[in-house]
Amino acid sequence: MKWTKEQEKAIYQKGSNIIVSAGAGSGKTAVLTERTIETLKMGVNIDQMIILTFTKAAAFSMKEKIKKRLCKESDPHLQKQLKLIEQASICTFDSFSLDLVKKYSDTLNIDPDINIADSVLVEALKSNIVDEVFLDFYQDEKFLNLLDTYTVKDDKSIKNDVVSIVANLDKIYDIDTFLNNYITLNFDIDKINTDISEYIGLIKNLYQEFQDKVLELNHFSLTTKEEKTLEVLNNFLNFQEYEEFKVFRLPFPRYISKEESAFKSKLSEIKEIYQNINELVTYDSITEMQEEILETKPYIEAIIDLVREIIKRTNEYKRNNNLYEFNDISRLAIKLLLENDDIRNYYKNNIKEIMIDEYQDTNDIGDFFISLIANNNVFMVGDVKQSIYRFRNANPKIFIEKYNNYANHIDGEKIDLNKNFRSRCEVIENINRLFKRLMSEEVGGANYPKDHIMYFGQEAYPNSGQNNNMEVYNYDPEDYYGFKKEEVEAFIIADDILNKINNHYQVYDFDNNSLRDIKYSDFSILLTEKREFELYKKIFDFKNIPLVIHKDEDLTYSTELIVVKNIIKLIGFYQNINLDNTLVKTYMSVARSFVCNYKDDQIFKTILESKGKNLFDYIQAELQEKIIYLSNFSKEHSISELVSEVIETFDIYLKASSIGNQKEIALKLDHLFDIASSLEKSNYGLKEFINYLLEATSEDIKFTISTEKDQNLGVNLMTIHKSKGLEFPICYFADLNKKFNSRDIKPRFLFDLKYGFIAPVFKEGIKTTIYKELLKQEFMKEEISERIRVFYVALTRAKEKMIFVTNLKEEDTNEEFIPKTTKLHFRSLNSVLNALSGSFHDDLINYPKLELTREYELVKDKIELNSNVKFDTIEIMIQKEELEDKHFSKSSVQLMNNNTLEFGTKIHEYLEYLNFNDFDNSLNNLIIDEFFKNKISKIKTMPFFKENAIYHKEYEFLTESDNIQKHGIIDLLIEDNDELIVVDYKLNDINKPYYLDQVRGYMNYLKTISSKTVKGYLYSILDENYKEVEN
Fold it and tell me: How do strand 323-324 and strand 115-116 relate by DSSP bridges?
């Protein structure tokens, strides 16, 4: 690969800390990989390096790239690294901290078998502890004074505020010291006066805007009335002190004429600034500001007492139960390094280089941790323009400060990678044109014109003969009366996609080095939120456009998990566990679900007959039998084993295939099994597990799982955050009217790292202090800065064309740089576009009016598939054998499915048809979809595949041991002269303990009937990998 000079510098420069500002599409991953290889060539071992990133997927990808690169090297030292790489620290910050804490658990005096707490469990735990602490504090005088002053009916609002405060305090390393010193440090009069000066600075900044805009009017051609108005305004241009602003009163004339003029427009802006000033000068004097701040002291003391106790009890519970969050692990790692010089010096002296990817996403605790083991050897790569995870505590100011220091050769060196190898030159020019005016270090976090202009680097693009400049499809909402903006935008995008498909729009294919017709998968639609995903799905289904929705799966309303939860609740009810009064409702949910499919008349008959009696004596015999069996099972087995047995007993994997995507269903059920396994370590039994499930599926707690979708199956719909790291030939940007977040500054009681604890005062009603306004200004500046960065991330996903769909009112002043004051008034991405509209005036297109219809609402939802396979209606009968006591594997059942036959059964069927002794020819002769052929073909590359062996498919056996009859069906039994090999197919995850036990059961049986060596394998069909099972 030919490197640019800047890339070479990033690969080879040594001897100091280095920060690399790597713009979108600049090849940073390739540079990181190459720098790693070059460092290894210097004689360094891979386990003498630490390579950190922020997601497991990124860490896995980095490790695979390094392995692939090492495989190309013949040098013995580099070949040695392939053996060391699996033990090397190429991982997330969290994983590295966890490994460190486990390694030195004796030093920390903690159990090395650390459990990372599930988020639902943590939220429920904290909620319970908050309730307990509040109840205990009803004996506390300060607490009662707090409630008397700020509550009317109950303590719910203060309780919610305290929960948020505890979460925000989690950003601090030493919370105890911070809380213990807080009152002394923050109610010092000098500190208060400094903060008041900052507040008055806000007023003076607004007044400066007022002056500037009034002076602009002096250059206007004015009417007599306008001249008189200007004369009045000119008399108010020389204020200096707060007391003068306090008496700042202006009479604004009313203009009867509705005709717009430049003077009226400017006067409206001046009036708005004047009103903003008046909202800040509500204090009679500076002394009053001081007094009000001091009046909050007893209330803040009460809040601190509360949060200190909540944090103390939470930490005690975690430690007693060996249950931690990753932030706890980070603190333990820091504690370990601070208190043990020998351990800290070991890492300082033995680690040759620390490399950090996506450095713009680091947080304060993570950066402090790295500083303890760094030795002028940290290589940081990132792009502050893509720092969009403030809600995860990412702090872009860390990157900005280092970048500026290193630019001046203080503590390190900076390198800029600004050549973009992703996008066409038109796309890059369009982005530069917008962001030169939009992004500054003060608002956005980067001086774009000075340091971040992108340069075209992808010379492979040919001239497509098409317009690759950005376009803005503008529409008038009044043309679509009765339709929401979101509906209009979805229809416009669908219409444009169909036009481009039908007109053979050309995009460049890098694999074939040529232009080709555009495909559905070349399009992406990026929205600010996922709220409208279902709307787009309905409209695109109506227009017959395949749509792939990329989002985390919300498990709160997951049909499969609700069914499992309710079955487990029924088991609890059967055991008379004191739950709630929803037995009938729970029974109805299970009876109506896909696992039973009982008719309503049957269900209601059961309920009526059992009124006043034991419901379990009247429910359907089959369901009753299963609940009794599972109840007995639960008394002798763990909750994870119970989850597995519920899934198997009710054939949930098989039956759920009719209601959704098989792979996603498997992921969700596997996730539930993992949760149960984790909770077991905290001694959770059936009752606690049921309560957990009730908490998890409540509306108050976020209960999600990440899922990966195949981008090649259709138009890709996702949020801008989800799109980070991806790229598409054409990107549509819609839903731009969504308002920026201001919810986080609405609570009465707040905590902020900069302004500390913020509380109101009571003066003839509740009144805020200066700190609330200071926080509001700072919060909105940071929020707008991040939204500008989100906008940059969105635009840089486009390879060949950007298309905005919105309703603009051109407001651009055509200034070279958009003024800070204008940017601080942005409240949506649409307002950003409005301010930039002069930059793309020639690209603004009034989209032809469409005839919309509500018929799309009548379209029946289509099941979203994760492959492009179309299934025919098919019926398979598999012999079912009743078992007396135990079974190794899932009982067989009759399967019938319209249009979407369950994936696993389909591929099992094809494997039954396959002649393994004539593998290639047999596979080629199967008339099946290419997707399935590719999956099946991988089996031949597995180590268990044998030429000229005897293959037994669906090998069924019945055996008896200790008077217990056992039955099993081995998917594939391979027999040759020396050994028997068991192969058990699974859809995806092959690491479940009960899968291993199942194969061991098969292996043990074979050892009773043969003297040959017996081996066992689990094989994942979707993931195309295997696991050898040890017996």
Answer: parallel
